[in-house]
Design goal:
The chain is an alpha/beta fold and about 180 residues long.
C-alpha cells in the first residue's frame, strides 16, 4: 500500500510540475518579432488637408489604410488634438502644379468609379518619429482624384506606409548602409 500512496502523491503533484515547466518552456520559444513583441502604436497625423477631406477625416483615413497594409508589429491610430505623440507618423501632402505651362485643363474622372474631383498630381511625405525623435522620411508622387473613395490614393497611402515601415522600408534600412528605392515616381 505504500507504493500506491506514494504514487497518488506523485500523480497529484507531477502534473502541476509538468504544467509549470511547460509554461516556462513555451515562454522561451522564440516567435517572430510581430508575435512575441507587443505592437508599437503610432499616431497618424496630417499636417495639412486635401480636397474632399476634413483634417480629422483624413487622419482616420490614413490610419485605416495603414492598418490594412499587413504591418503586424505596428498599430495605427488617428492623432488626437491633445498634443504631439512621441510615436507618430506625420503625413504632408503637396498639390503639384499641373504640367503643360499655361494650359490649366485637367481630365475629369468618369463618374461611375466612386471617386470625385479632378486629376491632380501630389507629393506625399511621411515622417516617422519614435520616442519623440525623428527617424526617417519617405517621399513619393501620386495622382489624387479626390475624396475617400479614390482607389489610387488609397493605394498610394498603403505603398507609402510599406516604403516607410515595411520589411525593406526606409526605417529598416537606417544604419544598414542600404537604401530602398522609392516605389513609385
Amino acid at each position: 500500500m505504500t507504493g500506491l500512496r506514494d504514487l497518488s502523491r506523485w500523480v497529484g503533484f507531477y502534473p502541476a510540475v509538468l504544467l509549470a515547466r511547460l509554461a516556462a518552456a513555451i515562454a522561451t520559444i522564440p516567435f517572430g518579432s510581430s508575435i512575441a513583441a507587443a505592437a508599437t502604436t503610432l499616431e497618424v497625423a496630417a499636417s495639412n488637408g486635401l480636397p474632399g477631406f476634413h483634417r480629422a477625416e483624413l487622419q482616420r483615413y490614413l490610419a485605416l489604410h495603414m492598418s490594412q497594409t499587413g504591418l503586424g508589429e505596428w498599430r495605427f491610430e488617428p492623432a488626437t488634438s491633445s498634443g504631439v505623440a512621441a510615436n507618430r507618423v506625420e503625413w504632408t501632402f503637396k498639390l503639384n502644379p499641373y504640367a503643360g505651362g499655361a494650359v490649366r485643363n485637367a481630365a475629369r474622372r468618369p463618374a461611375n468609379d466612386g471617386a470625385t474631383g479632378v486629376h491632380r498630381p501630389i507629393t506625399i511625405e511621411a515622417r516617422l518619429y519614435l520616442n519623440g525623435e525623428y527617424q526617417t522620411l519617405i517621399e513619393q508622387q501620386a495622382v489624387f482624384w479626390g475624396g475617400p473613395n479614390d482607389p489610387e490614393f488609397a493605394e498610394a497611402v498603403a505603398s507609402a506606409a510599406q516604403a516607410l515601415l515595411g520589411a525593406s522600408g526606409a526605417y529598416r534600412t537606417i544604419g544598414s548602409g542600404t537604401y530602398a528605392a522609392s516605389p513609385t515616381r
